[in-house]
Structure formats: C-alpha cells, structure tokens
Write a structure and sequence with these properties.
The structure is a single chain. The chain is α/β, with parallel strands linked by helices. The protein folds into two domains: about 55 residues, DNA polymerase, domain 1; about 280 residues, TIM Barrel (Alpha-Beta Barrel). About 35% of the residues lie in helices and about 20% in strands. The protein contains eleven helices and 14 strands. The chain has a ten-stranded mixed beta sheet, with helices on one face. Strands 1-2 form a two-stranded parallel ribbon. It has a two-stranded antiparallel ribbon with strand order 7-8. The model has no long low-confidence stretch (mean pLDDT about 95). Bound molecules: S-adenosyl-L-homocysteine. S-adenosyl-L-homocysteine binds next to strand 10 and strand 12.
C-alpha cells in the first residue's frame, strides 16, 4: 500500500498552499493542475523542472487508478474495473448516448445497504472512497478514450451509497464542476440515493443543483422493507418529502427509480400506490428492468415492462423505461467486481 498522499485529492487552491509549503511558487499549481486532469504522470509534466518533478514524486503519488480490466459490450458500453492505490477494486461504467458520454461512478468500495437485488452489497462496505479517487475514475476513463472524446455527464449510481460518504461526495462534485478541472455543469450530474433522508435535506442546501434520484422500488412500505433494509431506518414517505423539498429548493425536477422485479412489484396495487405517492409532484419515474440475477429475483419480460408502464401512464404518472445497456458484460451494479473477486479467491 502506498504511504504517499495523492495529489489528485487536492483542489486547485489546496495545491497552491501545498506548493507554497514546499517552498515553490504558488503559480506552479496552475501548471500542474491541467496535467493532473489529463491523467499525466509526474515524469511527463514537461513544463516543470526536473527537480520539481522529482520533489513531487518523492512526496506524492498522482492518485490515478489503474485499469485492471475492461469489458466492452456490443452496444458500446464499457465496464472498467479500476484498481485503487491500496489495491481495492471499483467499477466504473461508460455509456454512450445521443447527447454524450455518461460515466456511472462508484462512491464507496463495496456498499453497506444490502438491497437484495444488487450485487454491490454482497460483501458489505469495505470503505469510503476519497474525492480524489472518484475524480480518478473520470480522469482514467477520459484518458483511455483519448483526446476530444471526453465524458460530458456523470451519474453517481455505481457501487456505494453516495449520501453515506457525504463529505467526500460533495467535495468531488465541487471538483468536477470547477472550471479549472472538468467544468461539468451541475445539470449534467445525477446522484442516486436509496433514501438517506437527513442527508437529502442537507444536500438541498449545498447550492449544487444536480438531479437527485431516489431508488424507491416500491411505494408500499412492507414490500420495500423486504427488498431494501434502509426502509426500516428511513421511511419512504420521509424520503419522498425530502425529494419534494429538494425540487422546491433547487428548481430541479427529481427522478424516482423503480426496479422492475418479476411477480413482485409490478401489479395493479403497486402502480396505484406509486401513483398516489407521487401525485402532484413535478417528477419523473425511471423504470429499470432488473439486470442479471441476484437472490430469488428476476427481471420481467418486455411485455410485462410495457404493461406496467402503461398502468402508470393511465394514472397520470410520467414513466420511461431505462435502456438496458451492457447486459452482455454484467452491466448491473457490482456484478463484474463480484465475479472478478470470486475468481481471485
Ligand atoms: N446506493 C444508491 C446508488 C447505487 S445503485 C442507490 O441505491 O440509489 C444505482 C441504481 O441501480 C439503484 O436504483 C439500484 O437500485 C439499481 N440496481 C441495483 N442492482 C440492480 C440490478 N441488478 N438491476 C437493475 N438495477 C439495479
């Protein structure tokens, strides 16, 4: 394990202070930061003296993750398994849409939430990721894609519960939004939570109008409890109230995610409960047919998906079906990491 600190985990301001403390001119930060955001090793930072490059390398690592393996789908989706400095593996998924390239990043190593349909939580939480490690996911993939093919949208929907790593996630969002860094507009960023209500309320006050998504998955409390242990701590009605507050505070439309589990949450009573819960809200429902198989749950047929969507639309709820990308490469959360780690044991 590397004992040196990652330079990438510093904001441009912090980098200035750090260089001053090393006896260097603070303007060097403006020379170094563009190198960092293009994933360049110290040795190739060609406008720095050899001496300064040596000093940096003695005290720091750049902080970029290494690519352990990449799975490329027929539809162009790429799933990266990245190795962090301490050897832990995280997944990052690149999806190509008409409007640009979206990267789905992980925010924790493993996940503590234990949702029964999700492979990310199988081994529990290992640790939180730092802001620099999350930024590293984006930079490594950008570098792999090559010049002019940059990621335009970021979704925090990979492994982990972002709002349980609050401080680092907020720091990361500020970093990618910074014009000296990746300059990604807040409207091009989405964060998905399983409903950590106090953190959702706090996040509404951060002045970062990103799209907030709630993994609802059932509007019936007893049913939701059976698939999402978080329901016992944070009731869905409180989470929905927090979503309303977020929409009112930021002016952003919110999104409800609803995983479609065959013979479980797709009946008439499920559609009715969802319609009653969301009535009157400016929001959108994203239906996600379950990908892969974890536990006893299975994905529905195409026909069942559209039948449920129609049920909702008849009740006045706007709902779209998420395109299932990367099905041939274990595109669902945590599947590649889980298999890879299983094979290593
Ligand atoms: N912890 C956060 C973010 C990570 S999960 C959250 O719960 O929202 C991102 C989304 O992928 C969630 O909506 C999650 O429920 C969904 N998901 C997890 N496993 C899935 C699977 N096998 N098929 C389809 N979607 C899945």
């Amino acid at each position: 394990m590397s004992e040196k600190k990652s330079l990438l985990n510093h904001t441009p301001e912090e980098l200035k202070d750090l260089l001053s403390a090393m006896g260097e001119k603070p303007f060097r930060a403006a020379q170094i930061y563009p190198w960092l955001t293009s994933c360049t090793p110290f040795a190739e930072m060609s406008n720095l003296s050899k001496e300064l490059r040596g000093k940096l390398a003695d005290q720091f690592t750049e902080g970029y993750p290494e690519i352990e393996t990449v799975a490329i789908s027929k539809d162009g989706t790429r799933k990266y398994l990245l190795r962090l400095a301490d050897g832990h593996l995280v997944e990052t998924v690149l999806m190509e849409y008409e409007y640009g390239r979206t990267l789905c990043i992980s925010t924790q190593v493993g996940c503590p939430m234990g949702c029964v349909f999700c492979a990310s939580g199988l081994g529990g939480l290992v640790r939180n990721m730092t802001a620099g490690e999350m930024l590293g996911e984006v930079l490594r993939v950008n570098a792999d894609l090559g010049p002019g093919r940059n990621i335009s949208n970021i979704v925090l929907m990979g492994t982990g519960e972002p709002l349980l790593n609050y401080h680092n996630v907020v720091r990361f969002l500020k970093m990618i939004h910074d014009t000296r860094s990746l300059n990604i507009a807040y409207r091009n960023i989405s964060l998905s939570t399983c409903g950590i209500t106090p953190a959702m309320l706090k996040f509404a006050q951060e002045g970062m109008p990103i799209t907030l998504c709630l993994s609802l998955h059932s509007a019936i409390p007893e049913k939701r409890s059976r698939i999402m242990p978080v329901q016992q701590r944070c009731d869905l009605h409180d989470a929905v109230a927090a979503m309303k507050h977020y929409a009112e505070t930021t002016g952003r439309r919110t999104i409800y995610e609803y995983i479609l589990l065959k013979d479980f949450n797709m009946g008439e009573e499920d559609a009715e409960a969802l319609a009653v819960l969301l009535r009157g809200q400016i929001c959108h429902v994203n239906l996600i047919p379950m990908n892969g198989s974890v536990g006893d749950f299975q994905g529905p047929s195409k026909k069942e998906v559209y039948q449920f969507q129609e049920k909702l639309q008849r009740k006045g709820i706007s709902a779209t079906v998420r395109r299932t990308l990367g099905q041939d490469i274990e595109g669902a959360c945590g599947q590649l990491r889980a298999r890879y780690m299983g094979n290593q044991e």
